[in-house]
Amino acid sequence: MPRPGPSLPRVHGAASWRLASDRVEACVTRRGGHLGPVFFETDRGRIQPFALPPWQPQDIARHLPGVLRPLRGDFFCVPFGGNATPYRGEHHPPHGETAAGTWQLVEQRAADGTATLSVRLRLRTRPGRVTKRITLRAGEPVVYQEHLIEGCAGPMCLGHHAMLAFPAGEGSGRVATAPFRHGRTVPRMCEDPAQGGYSSLRPGSWFRTLRAVPGADGRPADLSRYPARAGFTDLVQLAGVRSRGPAWTAVTFSQERWLWFALRNPQLLTSTLLWHSNGGRHYPPWNGRHRRILGLEDVTAYFDYGLAESVRPNDFSRRGIATALTLRRDRPLRIPYLMGVLSVPRRFDSVRSVRFKGDLAVFTALSGRRVTQVLDRDFLSAP
User: Fold this and answer.
1) Does pTM surpass 0.85?
2) Which residues lie below 8 Å from residue 348, measured CB to CB, with a gap of 6+?
3) Taking the CB of residue 170, how many other CB atoms lie within 10 A of it?
């Protein structure tokens, strides 16, 4: 049975569990189960890639979504999105109870260089439970995450909501993903100027490459480089994967000589959302302060709209891209996910491909330079 455990230290204002290996030190908030900060030991020093908000949890007003209180790093959403529209009588909070509810400790242990944290949340809106298990392995600058959804039935959108903080300087990071089948900007206006929100991309536009996405001013925007378009907040979805094996997202910081990556099973997480948060929200609690943050959100969902919109036919589901999965009460659903940080050699620019030779992941840049990392590829397999 889950147990409360001892009182927890506060990290950036939030009570958090801590686990560590020789290569990674990670914190997980009790409220919302947000992973962050996370420190990776690399040849380039100790690197903490994830975003932390410019506020403390106690600064968030009661009427604002609960997910904003611990907001940081990466968190798991069931269901993913705003969820403003109820689905068959279910009215889920923004990004689901998993992103704002209080998780309970199941187990925390460290042995033989491996550290593991298991926590659990009981779902109330659609009865069931979710178990979060995070593992750090000796010698690997990698975070292994898995979420087990049990006791639920019916369609569900879900996903991870990773957020990276970028150094100052236009285009300091190079953004790349596995080849995708369809790219589209958010269909409706992403932000409303009447409410103090501003966007720079043309709504409802299809695109084939991140290097040329239609802008609201008629000019193409290059989304393969970030930070960019200061003063705006934008959202795009990259749906479907045109390659075999695990799908990937990656950001290279060539000047600092390191890269962040995420790996997923594309049958379980079918799309990637890129959320460009660069000062485009001037309403509370953002107030123009949330800048140079990029969400790299691997999901099965229809943009950030929520369950109702993800379940009904939409632009992607009509093209054969799943925007919801079917939960079965008698069959738990496991969602595995890997994230890591690697140092890279000089002239390693944007990631072109990620290929596997057994458990060796080979990251190849456009320049032809390579970097490798041993990891457990089988971890990403479906049960």
Assistant:
1) yes
2) 252, 254, 257, 259, 365, 367, 369, 371
3) 10
Q: Alpha helices of the chain — where are they, by DSSP H?
A: 307-311
Instruction: Give the C-alpha separation, 140 to 32, whole Å.
Output: 26
**Cβ 252 vs Cβ 344: under 8 Å:** yes
Tell me the pLDDT tens digit for each residue of 280-304. 999 999 999 999 999 999 999 999 9
Structural tokens at position 22: 């020789």
User: The tokens of 18 are what?
Assistant: 């801590």
Torsions phi, psi for 242 (to 5 deg): -100, 45
Q: Which residues are 247's β-sheet partners?
A: 264
Q: Are 17 and 11 in contact (CB under 8 A)?
A: no
| Nearest residue to 311 (alpha-carbon basis) of 44, 132, 81 | 81
Rounded distance, CA 141 to CA 139, Å?
7
DSSP state of 92: P
Which of 295, 311, 174, 323 has its CA nearest to residue 233? 295
Mean pLDDT of the chain, nearest integer: 96
In single-letter form, the type of residue at position 118 comes to S
- Mean pLDDT of the 197-226 span: 97
Question: For residue range 36-48, what is the model confidence (pLDDT) as tens digits?
Answer: 999 999 999 999 9
Q: Dihedral of CA 87/93/98/101: which sign?
A: negative
pLDDT at 5: 53
* 15 phi-psi bin (left φ>0, alpha ψ -120 to 50, beta other): beta
Is residue 185 a contact partner of residue 161, using CB atoms and an 8 Å limit? no
Average pLDDT (351-374) is 96
CA distance 98 to 210: 31
* CA distance linking residue 218 with residue 214, whole number of Å: 6
3-state secondary structure of 68: helix
What CATH number does the domain located at 10-349 have? Answer: 2.70.98.10
What average pLDDT score do residues 14-23 get?
98
- Among candidates 342, 349, 280, which has minimal Cα distance to 49? 342
pLDDT at 381: 87
Answer for the pair 334, 147: CB distance below 8 angstroms, yes or no.
yes
